[in-house]
Amino acid sequence: MKSSRRCLLFPFTWLCFMVLCHGDERFFNDNGQLQLPDNYNIPWMAGIEDSRSLSQITLPGTHDSMATHGGPVAETQAWPLRDQLAVGVRYLDLKVFALGDTLYAMHGVMYQHSTLREILDTVREFLSLFRSEVVLIQVRPEFSDKGNVNEMVQKLISNDEYVWVSSGMPHMGWARGKIVFVQKNTFTLGIPLNTESKGDTVVDTKEKDKSLIKQLSQASDACGGSNMVLTSSGGSGFGTFWGMFLTPKRVAEKVNPWLNQYLMQFLPNHPRPCFGVIAMDFPGFDLIQTVINLNW
User: Fold this and answer.
1) What fold characterizes domain 5-293?
2) pTM for this structure?
3) Cα 237–216–24 angle (5° rounding)?
């Protein structure tokens, strides 16, 4: 094996990654192999004050977090869930389909090779190793009876003390080590979520950029309130004539570098604005770090 490759050693098995030397800065990632620099600080939320409300934090998230299967139309992420958590993602967008007594992870009609139970177990394992962290989860029913999905999720989490389902906004001191559900429309467990995004349809990436400026401005104005605020930078042009060739990957290739440049302008500010959750398709390491750095 080449000397430029080595495995980061942790006291647990599933966070042993094959690491390449950190080279060119990348804001878009379609490589399923996670690349981390040496001594990367996985538990980045340890540096946030216990007194700070979750709604006062800028959180990197993924849009359609489990969508790594199904081809160009369906795929929105390259990294599997464990790698997303390790690199700093703290919001997960999960679409599920109820069949029998099981909730399956989906993206449209595409099964994403996991169940919600398996996803929650993975997140719980991560949080047991990094108690300073918080992971927000939004569950969105696909083709399922919405009320039934709520009941099935409640059975899955039972009386788990490390799951937050209250509608009250917690501060970091209460939320550390927990899964925090967020609710909107069809899912009713957790803290309320306001979505600044105007849908996932993209016919022109320049127009998407302009839309994101407006949405992030609105998200900043709402920062610190009783609701979490979500902005999604992802999308595709499927279903439209002009955007028929804009797959989620092609949109992310254009939008992600622009988004990083836009957010970088706020780093010299004191204090820096907060934007709530920024959910992305195919985010690269450096883009995630820019989002995280808005908190310091």
Assistant:
1) TIM Barrel (3.20.20)
2) 0.89
3) 70
